[in-house]
UniProtKB/TrEMBL annotation:
It comes from Sinocyclocheilus grahami (Dianchi golden-line fish). Keywords: Fatty acid metabolism, Ligase, Lipid metabolism, Membrane, Transmembrane, Transmembrane helix. This is long-chain-fatty-acid--CoA ligase. It is an enzyme of class 6 (ligase). It holds the Pfam family AMP-binding.
Length: 479
């Protein structure tokens, strides 16, 4: 076999093999095209050397980083519906039928948790920790059993098993929050989160609006604050004999003068909304990121907002784990280091702090030069579609940065506000994992747009979700 034919036989079928082979040839001495190994008498050591070269070359071709290819043309991510250019849908859909659910057996949040229960069984579901200790885990089976018992207790206290029965929850992120939520869904009741950041009057408004007769609290002072409302004769919609079930209340903020802004508006979120929204993310990430049973997410963003709840539902649907922070945001980084999450929902403010901390820790001018050079090399890979955490730069420079966030991150989702392109590009390089941007509101079930895999630009959230349409309406004036 001639040497050129031997090189061609090493080609890998995927990717741009021509450019790879051209690069490989530059590493070898120039040889005539008619050169043949059979024309030489090779010593055993030469044969061993050529065999080693062939093995290394084959290993490089097989293990080289693969660029992530977008699932559609990034310049045409949406398609008009029935020829109407003002009404568009995602190009990832085969037709105009919007995605309602990804799995046939997951049409409600209860269904999604039950799917995770079937996958994980006695496997870990909800995690918590005490200061200085490792995480302790509650299994899927135990969560389901506790939800059943709590739900039965709510019925015994007078709640009705129907969607018009609203149960309030006034608690910080913790396993009991999820257990309460699942207890309500187990018996077809609706959950209404209460939170004190808007002030006492806003909470009264929520109790009134939803006619809540049952509130579950995590601390005594919260239960007392609700009871004081009743004792003072404030109309809360709570009938005589209402129950407060006890499972740091901050100072009240200044209230805006206009009541238009401070009164919270009710957002009626259906199980169908949640199923469609969750399924859209799963579909977009299909083939790029699949949630596995061993995945774990850190829960610290308020569960009163749908962003955090959508993350948790996605984890439960696949039998994965959710670990809760201790309740003190100053200890969050220690919780992350201990939990070692693979999934990290985050807001830009926290990413900015991580970015500043990384740069602030590099005081030596030489180390700063090396850091920025390594970042540029990783960013060059990123621009070609390669996302990895096993490069030379990861092993030499970025491993400590990645270890500070547990060392296992596979996926980060940032939302709630725009993020600086500089910060986003820097963290994509240093953390070596998928980082996506999302946009939405609680009123639209958290997300309505989501970065497209393979699009590593910043400041864009790509097309509308697969389960949504968007309609362009001209705005003639703004007053």
């Amino acid at each position: 076999m001639q040497f050129q034919e031997w090189l061609r036989s090493l080609r890998f079928s995927g990717g741009d093999s021509k450019s790879e082979m051209d690069n490989l040839k530059t590493l070898l001495p120039s040889l005539p095209s008619s050169f043949s190994l059979s024309s030489l008498s090779l010593s055993p050591s030469s044969i061993i050397g050529l065999g080693a070269l062939a093995s290394l070359t084959t290993y490089w071709l097989v293990t080289r980083p693969r660029p992530i290819q977008p699932p559609c043309d990034l310049q045409a991510q949406s398609i008009s519906v029935q020829g109407d250019q003002s009404c568009r849908r995602s190009a990832l859909l085969k037709d105009d039928d919007l995605l309602e659910f990804y799995y046939e057996d997951t049409k409600t949040v209860y269904d999604m948790f039950q799917r995770g229960l079937r996958i994980a069984g006695n496997g870990p579901c909800l995690g918590f920790r005490k200061p200085g200790e490792p995480y302790q885990w509650i299994s899927y089976t135990e969560v389901a059993e506790r939800a059943q018992v709590l739900g039965s207790g709510l019925l015994a206290k007078g709640c009705k098993p129907n969607p018009k029965q609203y149960v309030g929850i006034f608690a910080q992120n913790r396993p009991e929050w999820v257990i309460t939520e699942m207890a309500c869904y187990t018996f077809s009741m609706a959950l209404v989160p209460l939170y004190d950041t808007l002030g006492l009057e806003a909470m009264v408004h929520i109790l009134n609006l939803a006619e809540i007769s049952m509130v579950i609290c995590d601390k005594e002072d919260k239960a007392e604050s609700v009871l004081k409302i009743k004792e003072k004769g404030v109309t809360t919609g709570v009938p005589p004999g209402a129950f407060i079930i006890l499972l740091h209340t901050p100072s009240l903020p200044l209230r805006p003068q206009s009541q238009l802004f401070w009164k919270p508006k009710g957002a009626m979120i259906t199980h169908g909304n949640i199923a469609s929204n969750t399924s859209s993310v799963i579909k977009i990430l299909e083939g790029y990121f699949v949630i596995r049973q061993e995945d774990v997410s850190i829960s610290y963003l308020p569960l009163a907002h749908m962003f955090e709840r959508m993350i948790q539902v996605s984890m439960f649907c696949h039998g994965a784990r959710v670990g809760f922070y201790q309740g003190d945001i100053s200890l969050l980084m220690d919780d992350i280091k201990t939990l070692k999450p693979t999934f990290f929902p985050v807001v830009p403010r926290l990413l900015n702090r991580i970015y500043d901390k990384i740069l602030g820790s590099v005081t030596s001018p030489l180390r700063r030069i090396i850091l920025h050079y390594a970042v540029r090399r990783k960013q060059a890979e990123l621009s070609s579609g390669v996302v990895r955490n096993n490069s030379m730069w990861d092993r030499l420079i970025f491993n400590k940065i990645q270890a500070s966030l547990g060392g296992n991150l596979r996926f980060i989702l940032t939302a709630s506000a725009p993020i600086s392109p500089t910060v986003l590009s820097f963290l994509r390089a240093t953390l070596g994992c998928l980082i996506f941007e999302g946009y939405g509101q609680t009123e639209c079930t958290a997300g309505c747009t989501f970065s497209m895999p393979g699009d590593w630009s910043a400041g864009l959230c790509s097309c509308v979700f697969i389960g949504l349409l968007y309609i362009i309406t001209p705005v003639f004036s703004v007053t």
